[in-house]
Amino acid sequence: MAILTYREAVVRALDEEMARDDDVIFFGEDVGRAGGVFKVTPGLWETYGNDRVRDTPISEAAIVGAGIGAAITGMRPVIELMFADFAAVTLDQIVNQAAKMRYLSGGQITVPLTIRAAQGGGVGFGAQHSQCCETWFMHAPGIKVVVPSTPADVLGLLKTAIRDDNPVVFLEHKGQYAEKGEVPDGEHLVPFGVANIVREGRDVTIVAVQRMIGVAMKAAVELEKSGISCEVIDPRTLVPLDMATITESVKKTGRLITVEEAVQAGGWGAEVATQIADHAIWSLEAPIVRVTLKTGLIPFSGPLEEYVTPSKDDVIAAVRRVMET
Amino acid sequence: MTAQTNPVERLDPQTRRHMLRSMIEVRTVEAQIQELFLENVIRGTTHLCDGQEAVSVGMAAAISPSRGDTVTCTYRGHGHALALGLPIETMMAEIMGKAAGSSKGKGGSMHLTDMRNGLIGTFAVVGAGLPISNGAALTAQIRKTGAVAVAIFGDGTANIGTFHEALNLAAVWKLPTIFLCENNLYGEYSAYEDTAPVANVADRAVAYGMPGVIVDGQDAEAVYAAMRSAVARAQAGDGPTLVEAKTYRYRGHSRTDPASYRRAGELDQWLRRDPIMVLADRMIADGELMQEELEQIGQTAVKSIEDATKWAMAQPYPALDSVYEDIWV
To answer: Which terminus of chain A, N or C, has fewer Cβ atoms within 10 Å?
Structure first.
């Protein structure tokens, strides 16, 4: 077991896959010579050269389009959009083109493209550089959506993403880049659609991803002191979504809380809640509670950003509410 | 309309004949499709390319899908697809939404795809294909295949962001991309001159450090010659070219558009330089074609398209379960 940061896990995954397969190429804004604005991809340009690792102009639609075209014609491109918020600039290429080309061509086209981007708040970047955008892509069938929470998952899921023959949106949480964690030695692949039960518990199921796993875990530790046992589940991928593991957990605990660093309306928490209502409503002993951003917008001011973001106390309050019912 | 590039080479009689036959086929198919729409055999909408056939056949003759050359085009793509080799039967079946369609009825008129013949996509969102052609060009560049990627688009596309992003990236990376603009004078219902501040789309090439070539889009041989030059430049590693074919759309933008915004006499003026006539007249003058042969080619096209239409009409619709297929690999 080695200890890697979340950031180092990204570059290890890219390095391993580029070494393994010459068809893997990587490009985006400032990713080559500069090693990325988040210093996530240092050394790749030096190792693999200008053919396979390229800096691009600030042209998100051109970047995604070039990724699609290269993918269609036999490469396995990984592209970086820097801030996930910038996906809005190139949404057509992602949701209308990458997602639909296989379908519209009746299966003639394959788009093995990985789109990396950094999302999430907590770093004072304001409303256009802090969003968690995972749900944007859940509405585009044809795209897989990956939200890794630990360095080991970053490594294993990014390698899986690169080998997947579908377009994958791989969202890294920029607030977690410095977090450290154990990473297995040797080849480490994590399959899509398999949730991780981060903590086992009896009384409440808490589903969270990325930075909110840490928040949920802190709440779980504190609640344990008052005798409330929380099960914390990390779906790891939202498309495909491992509802079987979540449903099984809810059948055991009878209570469900989702924790999202994102907008409440139409979020993945709403999808999880609805599916539980469909398939396990008679197992519920309390209403389902969604803990989300208090507003959809992320303010700049430090205390305000901290206030709108789900906290340990918000999760504890939600748990206490469902335990009282 | 001025043609600033004249044919630099006379094509051999066989290639000319192939291009002529192909243009007549496209014209006949479009007439058939219009009829089928009016009879409600085909649903949705369609964007016909009558008048622009020389661009399709000149482009197709200049590239080599077997080498890995690829094409992206617009929703006005029947001509390009046919010129590249998509069988008429499967195209008709696709446009009718049949299981035997080239995309199993999932794409339709606006999304023809034919990977076997290099057509990697027909894009119904203006400008969407250009960045994707760059990606195909990137593959060719990295693998050193000598292949080129052709992005076909209309004059309206010159005003959307992806045009600028794609030309810029292609130039910076010296990609073997050929940007082929069909300037048919109208972006949907609006005249080019009302929506663009420069006289020619090709004028924009200078901003991206690439040649901007204007070609007579009614002359298949001129289009061929311009495309061959662009292919040679791409293969030499010198990067992309913007080719602007000056052409004209005989019909409105789509099925429901009578094109009443056209200036009086404009259509008649363009009909006098009909692309089929331009090539046929030249072949007749060069003693390569008899008037009776021209008529014969027309009759053969009508017959084969009637047969293709009958075949497509007799095909079943896709099984309902097929909606769940081809979403994921």
So the answer is: N
Which amino acid, A161? A
Q: Which residues contact B241 (CB under 8 A, 6 or more apart)?
A: B178, B179, B205, B210, B211, B212, B213, B229, B230, B233, B234
Please state the pTM of the whole predicted model.
0.97
Residue B159, H or E segment: none
- Residue A200 known to be catalytic: no
CB-based contact (8 Å) between A88 and chain B?
no
Backbone phi, psi, residue A24, to 5°: -80, 120
B46 backbone dihedrals φ, ψ, rounded to 5°: -150, 155
Q: How many CB pairs under 8 A join A and B?
A: 147
Please give the order of strands across the beta sheet that includes B177-183. B119-123, B70-74, B149-154, B177-183, B241-246, B212-216
In chain A, positions 131-170, which contact chain B (CB-CB < 8 Å)? 141-142, 164-166
Q: Which residue, among A234, A235, A228, has the nearest Cα to A202 in the 3D structure?
A: A228
| Cα distances (angstroms) measured from residue A63 to each of A54, A66, B138, B162 | 11, 5, 11, 10
Catalytic annotation present for A173: no
The CA distances from residue A117 to A37, A211, B256, in Å, are: 11, 15, 42
ipTM topping 0.90:
yes
> Which SS3 state, helix, strand or coil, does residue A76 take?
strand
Show residues of chain B in contact with A81, CB under 8 Å: none
Q: How far apart are CA A286 and CA B26, in angstroms?
A: 65
Contacts of A224 (CB under 8 A, 6+ apart): A230
CA–CA distance, B205 with A243 (Å, rounded to integer) = 52
CA torsion through residues A46, A47, A51, A57, sign: negative
Rounded Cα gap, residues A182 and A68, in angstroms: 34
- Looking up tokens 């204007």 gives B214
Give SS3 for A191. Answer: coil
C-beta separation of A117 from A84 below 8 A: yes
pLDDT digits (tens, 9 = 90+) for A237-287: 999 999 999 999 999 999 999 999 999 999 999 999 999 999 999 999 999
Q: What is the dihedral of CA A121, A125, A127, A128, to 10 degrees?
A: -100
Type of residue found at A164:
D
pLDDT, one tens digit per residue, over A202-233 is 999 999 999 999 999 999 999 999 999 999 99
Q: Which of A8, A17, A60, A231 is catalytic?
A: A60
- All residues of chain A having their beta carbon less than 8 Å from the beta carbon of residue B172 are 57
3-state secondary structure of A124: coil
Q: Which residues contact A314 (CB under 8 A, 6 or more apart)?
A: A291
CA atoms within 13 A on the CB side of B181: 30
Beta-strand ranges (E) seen in A223-324 are 230-234, 237-239, 256-259, 289-291
